Automatic annotation (TrEMBL):
Ig-like domain: residues covered: 23-112, 120-195
Keyword Glycoprotein: yes
Pfam family, one: I-set
Cross-referenced PROSITE patterns: IG_LIKE
Protein's membrane topology: Single-pass type I membrane protein
Membrane-crossing residue ranges in chain numbering: 221-239
Keyword terms, alphabetized: Disulfide bond, Glycoprotein, Immunoglobulin domain, Membrane, Transmembrane, Transmembrane helix
Molecular function in Gene Ontology: cell adhesion molecule binding
Organism: Nothoprocta ornata
Gene3D superfamilies (alphabetical): Immunoglobulins
Protein name: TMIG1 protein
A cellular component annotation (GO) from this entry: cell-cell junction
GO process terms (BP): cell-cell adhesion
């Protein structure tokens, strides 16, 4: 009886699944520059930032990975285990971008740094525009800056007086436009878009040339006249066909 009971227990144990032990991440945390939560870091364009990611409460060596947005950052072999440092040469393109340090074996363990990059307006050069009289024209003066800039428009180096119904100004965080309705010869000149912020200013010139309005040919009248001429010729030939046949 004991032998039979032992065999039964052995068969039951043989059929029971083996327990799989997955690694535990309980208690493991990350910090970036001593911050355990996501944070925003202000920096000037052209500066260099150093970010240091540190594993805390770990019981074994942990590998770290860095991301810039959705793309990975290349790290040297000795810069991945338990502590990882990256240096960022900050540009205006980094404004609003998140740099994230993650635990490689469980990427839900992470800390992100969102960059708040400050930079002045970037405007330069000039543009020449030709427009016919009575046509509308829009001068586009687009420039990003942080903090956001404000645009001032000049004509021939004098502050532009905005005539109602003729001039319209449109502005967003990085778009500055001046629209002129039904351009006139008096609108000829150089228009300057000056964008100012707390960090500096940028400017762009627009040379506007208003040309004489080209005459519009009455297409329908020309076609009608051509048809009349053609019919006249045909009727003339038909009327004189008797004389034409006698000649032949």
């Amino acid at each position: 009886l004991q032998k039979a009971a032992g065999m039964l227990v052995a068969r039951v144990q043989h059929r029971m699944p083996k327990c799989l032990h997955s690694p535990s991440f309980a208690g493991v945390e990350l910090s970036v520059n001593n911050n355990a939560l996501d944070f925003t870091l202000s920096a000037a364009s052209g500066s260099v930032l150093s970010l240091s990611c540190l594993v805390q409460n770990n019981s074994q060596a942990e590998e770290l990975v860095w991301y810039r947005g959705d793309g990975t950052v290349d790290l040297k072999a000795g810069n991945k285990e338990n502590v990882s440092n990256i240096c960022i040469s900050v540009t205006a393109d980094d404004d609003g971008v998140a740099f994230t340090c993650k635990l490689k074996r469980d990427q839900s363990v992470q800390v992100s740094v969102i960059l708040d990059v400050q930079f002045p307006p970037a405007l330069s050069g000039g543009e020449t525009l030709w427009v016919e009289e009575e046509e509308d024209v829009t001068l586009n003066c687009n420039s990003k800056s942080n903090p956001q800039g404000q645009a001032i428009w000049y004509k021939n180096n004098n502050t532009l007086t905005l005539e109602q119904k003729r001039y319209q100004v449109y502005q967003t965080s990085d778009v500055y436009q001046l629209s002129i309705k039904k351009a006139q010869k008096s609108d000829n000149g150089t228009y300057t878009c000056l964008v100012k912020s707390d960090l500096g200013e940028g400017r762009k010139d627009f040379h506007l040339i208003v040309e004489d309005k080209k005459p519009v040919f009455p297409t329908e009248a020309i076609i009608a006249a051509a048809v009349v001429v053609a019919l006249t010729i045909i009727f003339g030939i038909v009327a004189r066909k008797g004389k034409i046949f006698k000649v032949w």
